[in-house]
Automatic annotation (TrEMBL):
Protein name stated in the entry: Succinyl-diaminopimelate desuccinylase
Keywords: Cobalt, Hydrolase, Metal-binding, Zinc
Keyword Zinc among record annotations: yes
Family that this chain belongs to: Belongs to the peptidase M20A family.
Required co-factors: Co(2+); Zn(2+)
Alphabetical list of Pfam families matching this protein: M20_dimer, Peptidase_M20
One MF term in the entry's GO annotations: hydrolase activity
Domain Peptidase M20 dimerisation stretches: 193-326
Annotated source species: Leucobacter komagatae
InterPro entries: ArgE/DapE, Bact_exopeptidase_dim_dom, Peptidase_M20, Peptidase_M20_dimer, Peptidase_M20A
């Protein structure tokens, strides 16, 4: 048996033997509230740092302000011809909502009938625990990895804030990284390797107020103009992206996955080839009997690979001009270009192969329609993919949970990928 095979066997066996430790850690993270908003992650950062320190891993805390604290660890050094892999994830979670609508305490962090339960179980504290545990196992066994392995747990992801992954990368903390694994939730056998761009904006439309009894003969209703704008902007769906042949194949595979595995049904895969537009918030007018002087509408549009935010926003302006609607446009929230890591990139090929060896021969990378910190790493030149344990239908929902078996599998995938991506020192 080769040195590499020996270490793979030892590491995977160690994860199996310490699976209860892994689940206990995942439960501890879930039991430590870190809802965003408000987003103060001081306590959860201290818990993560404390656990790693107790396990013999030296950590650093990076405070970007407002309670946005990142936890970072480094192992090894990157030589001229070596690779630098980053294990990363976010430790903030979405709010629990109405706790009375949960079937169990939102921060339970327990295991019942093979399920790890609580807010963050899928998104993404179980995956984060898997990264931490794989890192600890490497340290515990003294695995002689070649190159550099970093761990970075960040805040401010759920609201798309700038004080998490973006801030950390801007500080140069992860300079030299050649690849990354983000423990975001994914279907068991399908890591996500690309995502649509995110383009949120607010339209403010002004009208001319008047007495409501004289409409439509007197005054100009901003609300009516807003309604016309909403209907007209549905034309964004008709924009045609320009896609290469390899990208078309990836989209075809992703469409099949979305329709057959995610349970949305036939047709949902079309989102990968079109601009989607969601009318999220509408407010307008001052009183029922007054012609509305102002209407404010917030839109969430998602941009497919093969288009750009600039192209979509230029089309927005064209459509409004065609309708004769004057509006102020303000961009907000998540803003990113469509982004992806090619299936041929080493980090993708190696993780997918590891997943095939450990779980399913049909494992394959696919696209997603949501946004995450993957966009931030890719914008900084770091190829990444996402893989983490999840019950997808419970993400951002009540009764969030993840299969225990998938939590353990994910930790093994992270470890095996790191071993094969970095290699072993001579």
């Amino acid at each position: 048996m080769s040195q590499a095979s020996t270490w793979e066997t030892r590491v995977l066996q160690a994860i199996d033997e310490s699976s209860e430790e892994l689940l206990k850690l995942a439960g501890l993270l879930i039991q430590t509230p870190s809802e965003n908003p408000e987003g103060d992650c001081t306590e959860i950062a201290e818990v993560i740092s404390g656990h790693l320190t107790q396990s013999g891993v030296e950590t650093e805390l990076f405070d970007a302000g407002e309670g946005r604290i990142s936890v970072v660890a480094h192992r090894g050094e990157k030589g001229a011809d070596d690779r630098h892999l980053v294990f990363t994830g976010h430790h903030d979670v979405v709010p629990v909502g109405d706790p009375n609508r949960w079937d169990f305490p939102p921060f339970a962090g327990d295991v019942v009938d093979g399920w790890l339960r609580g807010r963050g179980a899928s998104d993404m504290k179980a995956g984060l625990a898997g990264l931490m545990h794989a890192y600890i196992v490497f340290e515990r066994l003294g695995v002689p990895l070649k190159g550099k392995l970093s761990f970075a747990s960040v805040p401010d992801e759920e609201t798309g804030g700038p004080l998490g992954a973006h801030w950390l990368l801007e500080q140069g903390v992860l300079d030299g990284a050649t690849g990354g694994i983000i423990a975001e939730p994914a279907e068991r056998n399908h890591p996500t390797i690309g995502q649509k761009g995110s383009n949120w904006f607010r339209l403010t439309i002004h009208g001319t107020p008047g007495h409501g009894s004289l409409q439509p003969l007197h005054g100009v209703s901003a609300n009516l103009l807003g309604a016309r704008a909403i209907l007209a902007l549905q034309k964004l769906w008709d924009m045609k992206p320009t896609q290469s042949e390899d990208l078309k194949q990836l989209i075809a595979d992703s469409k099949q996955y979305a329709e057959e595995r995610e349970g949305y049904g036939p047709g949902i895969g079309d989102v990968f080839e079109h601009v989607t537009i969601n009318v999220g918030k509408i407010s307008g007018g001052t009183s029922t009997n007054v012609v509305a002087d102002t209407c404010v509408i917030e839109f969430d549009t998602r941009v497919p690979l093969g288009l750009t935010r600039d192209a979509v926003n230029e089309r927005v302006r064209e459509i409004l001009a065609e309708e004769g609607i004057e509006a102020e446009i303000e961009f907000l929230g998540f803003m990113s270009e469509p982004n992806w890591t090619p299936p041929t990139d080493p980090i993708v090929e190696i993780l997918v192969d590891a997943l095939r060896d450990l779980s399913a021969p049909e494992a394959q990378g696919v696209l997603q329609w949501a946004s995450s910190d993957a966009r931030t790493f890719r914008s900084h030149g770091v190829p990444v993919l996402q893989y983490g344990p999840a019950d997808l239908k419970t993400i951002h929902n009540f009764n969030e949970r993840a299969l225990v078996a998938d939590v353990v599998l994910a930790a093994k995938v992270y470890a095996l990928t790191a071993l094969r991506y970095l290699g072993l020192a001579e």
